[in-house]
Amino acid sequence: MLKIAELPVSDSVKEVLDGLGFVELFPPQEDSIRAGVLDGQNIVLASPTASGKTLIAELCGLKHVLERGGKVIYLSPLRALASEKFEDFKKYTSIRKPDGRKVSVGISTGDFDSTDNWLERYDVIITTNEKADSLLRHRAKWMDGISLVIADEIHLLNDAGRGPTLEIVLARLLQVNPNIQILALSATINNVDEIAGWLNAKYIVTEWRPINLKEGIMLKDEIQYKDGESRKIEAETHFPHINLVLNTLKKGGQALIFASTRKNAVSAAKTVASHMDKVLVPKSGSKLVKRSLEEQARGVLEKEAKKILDAGERTGLSEELADLVRCGVAYHHAGLSGAHRKVIEDAFKERKIKVLTATPTLAWGVNLPARTVIIQDYRRFEAGLGNYPISVLDYKQMAGRAGRPKYDKFGESVLIAKTADEQDYLMESYVLAKPERIWSRLAVEKIMRAHVLSTIASDFAHTEQGIYEFFGKTFYAYQYDVKAIKNVINKILRFLHDEEMIVVAGNNILATKFGKRISELYIDPLSGVIIRDALKSKPPILTEFSLLHLVSHTPDMGPIMRPYQREMDKLAVQTEDHKQELFIEPPDQWSDHIGYAEFLGEVKTATVMNNWIEELPEEKIIERFNVQPGDLYRSIETAKWLLHAIDALSPIVCKNKEVSALSHELVERVSKGIKRELLPIVQLEGVGRVRGRIIFNAGYQTIPDLKRASIEELTNLPSVGPRLAKKIKEQVGGYVKKDEWESLDKAASASNEATQKGLFDF
Q1: Residue pLDDT, tens place only, 420-435
Q2: CA separation (Å) from 626 to 386, 402, 575?
Q3: In the prediction, which pLDDT does 589 show?
Q4: Nearest partner of 270 among 340, 187, 311, 329, judged by Cα
């Protein structure tokens, strides 16, 4: 085994790793070193979860920074995963470079309309694929200095949503700097040789794991494993998966259950929680010892439950989740708020939460390993498609979560079968099967529109031939032929020309001011056309609802809040009531049933946003419109982004100051969920929509009001307290006597954990 001490890397890097207990490399890491990853060789490393891919990325990154004066960009498919990698790289920030400055690590995952010039100061930049694409569109100058790109989860090239952006970013970075080194990381995939061929890389494929993975199928009370072994599970309940969970917990493990839908994940968590008394209460020892251990466990879980309740506005959903956490159980899906997901992820990593139920998307996200992974249903439901079997690649991703490094000697992944025939089918189709080939998903007009425009608008190509040459460097062209994509490109060029986003001058193709701004704003050109055409004629009555519906009508809004059948009549009436405020004419409900239903969904989405900025409590929004917090927050973020686009485009397309002023104001109001009157107050750190309203209603309606307020007055307001009162006074610059500061400092330092947790911005 190759030892860390023998590696051709800086001694300061070895010292950091030695301090963390790293002595020898894992086999996939050793293979990467011997393949030349530290010598600048492009590498595609395909190996299972927890096999050490991140350490290779760190070693390679530090080699560039410390010895080559280079800059590293780490591409992640998800913000949560980017945050994890940021924490991984931060351990090297004590190391000094040859110029005496310390290694610096930065992260940027939001704001797609910025060059983020501040990132130039950092040696290692962690970002999402979309943010990197946005930075390339803005031609951020510092990106020319990137010498290494690390592409995490490269198998997501196969994903119709995320794959094309990753593909374009890699092709673009190679265009900007043909000598850039690429390190692509992946779970085991079938055609890794093709991806390596495209990237001019060597590839390493291994099934090695630090913890052995046992894959099996459970039928009733018995698990049949891939290797021919089997074992019986004590039947304590009528549910095989619950029996397996209890068996795992009694042996000191944690369990991760994958369910096909959010609803099923919640249901599974509740079922597990109802049986947790069998494992949370110790079975042996004296009554005194048992009581003490139980109280200790309950106390730890109560603290985690309180974190759930304190993370934002208290709702029925947060109370339900807190009750589950008190039992050592939680669910995790995209309908939860980011704050709730973070509390749950941390508690599971710290082994406080013992059982987590989740939708399959978690398998592609943050690293949450468990002793036992249970795949409750191998089918997945998707609107418009119904129930369909998951791919082998998805199954392998879920199974790969089994086994906790440092805690387990093996990991166990189990599919649940209902019949003997199904057991045979699952063994053949998933456990013994190889993952599907990865295919480029690029050549779709809807996806390609923005990338063709950005190629022209960001000066990467100015002729038709130049555009073909760039797309000829994509994975799609490598797998098929650039001729196959030419027809799509030609159709898009005609669309962009007809919609005045590009102009043709001889052989040259140039972006118009409108086209360039669309590209910089990172919106679909079709969204830009919809906004432009709408703004050319103002509705009879311009209101907040006018713009909220307009952004809901664009393809960039993504999944709108689809109306339930019982809501249709009410939404139809609401559409009629708001008709004078709409930029877009509703379709005829009799001749275009589908279009009209879609339009009502847009009205519902706009109505939810309108209630949000009118400060309807989150709990009431969830209850009234049957939406989940995660979906609400995603709509808020998207609406904020599109309102910014309207603000940026209105001076170009219509020069309507009224529209511009309203959209500018709405960006802030949607972001915070507030009425206009709270705008000055919520600019203060620590003051969100709930506290802002409390402060305003107490008579502190402006910044001068807060300057004049005494510490005692602010401290006595509900949900403010001494810590936030001090923060507010520091920000507004109001006069405070010395003895008041001292008194405030004492109160703040003596405040208990509950007060500190109350500083969540809500």
Answers
A1: 999 999 999 999 999 9
A2: 21, 34, 19
A3: 87
A4: 329
C-alpha closest to that of 228 among 510, 24, 495, 427: 427
Q: Does 754 have pLDDT greater than 80?
A: no
Q: CB neighbours of 194 closer than 8 A, spacing ≥ 6?
A: 437, 438, 478, 479
CATH label, 685-757, candidates 1.10.10.10, 3.40.50.300, 1.10.150.20, 3.40.50.720? 1.10.150.20
Cα-based torsion angle of the residue sequence 240, 246, 252, 257 in order, rounded to the nearest 10 degrees: 50
| pLDDT at position 384 | 65
**CA–CA gap between residue 131 and residue 414 (Å, rounded):** 37
Mean pLDDT in residue range 52-80: 95
For the stretch 145-200, pLDDT in tens is: 999 999 999 999 999 889 999 999 999 999 999 999 999 999 878 899 999 999 99
**pTM of this structure:** 0.90
Q: Which of 149, 11, 2 is nearest to 67 (CA)?
A: 11
Give pLDDT tens digits for 351-399.
999 999 998 877 776 788 899 999 998 988 776 667 889 999 999 989 9
Please tell me whether residue 30 adopts helix, strand or coil conformation.
Answer: helix
Backbone angles phi, psi at 700, to 5 degrees: -95, 85
212-431 under CATH 3.40.50.300, yes or no? yes
Structure-token pair, residue 133: 């694409």
Q: Between 710 and 132, name the one with better pLDDT.
A: 132
The one-letter code for the residue type at 54 is: T
At CA 14, angle to CA 11 and CA 19, rounded to 5? 130
CB of 496 closer than 8 Å to CB of 502? yes
User: What b/e string do you get for 7-29 counting C-beta neighbours within 10 Å, with b at 16 or more?
Assistant: bebbeebbebbeeeebeebbbbb
Q: Across all residues in the chain, what is the average pLDDT?
A: 90
pLDDT at 712: 87
What is the C-alpha to C-alpha distance for residues 338 and 359, in angstroms, rounded to an integer? 15
Q: Provide the residue count of the chain.
A: 762
Enumerate the β-bridge partners of residue 205: 46
Q: Do 4-205 and 445-521 agree at the fold level?
A: no
- Matching CATH number, 4-205, of 3.40.50.300, 2.102.10.10, 3.40.190.10, 3.10.450.750: 3.40.50.300
C-beta neighbour count of 197 within 10 angstroms: 15
What would the 3-class secondary structure string for 447-489 be? HHHHHHHHHHHCCCCCCHHHHHHHHCCCHHHHHCCHHHHHHHH
Give me the CATH topology for the region 525-673.
Answer: Sec63 N-terminal domain-like fold (1.10.3380)
- Spacing of C-alpha 531 from chain mean position: 27
CA angle 517, 520, 523 (to 5 degrees): 90
Decide which of 2.40.50.180, 3.30.559.10, 1.10.10.10, 3.40.50.11810 is the CATH code for 445-521: 1.10.10.10
Stretch 530-537: mean pLDDT, rounded?
A: 94
What CA–CA distance (Å, rounded) separates 95 from 72? 16
How does strand 124-128 pair with strand 71-76? parallel
Q: Which residues contact 604 (CB under 8 A, 6 or more apart)?
A: 560, 561, 562, 563, 567, 571, 625
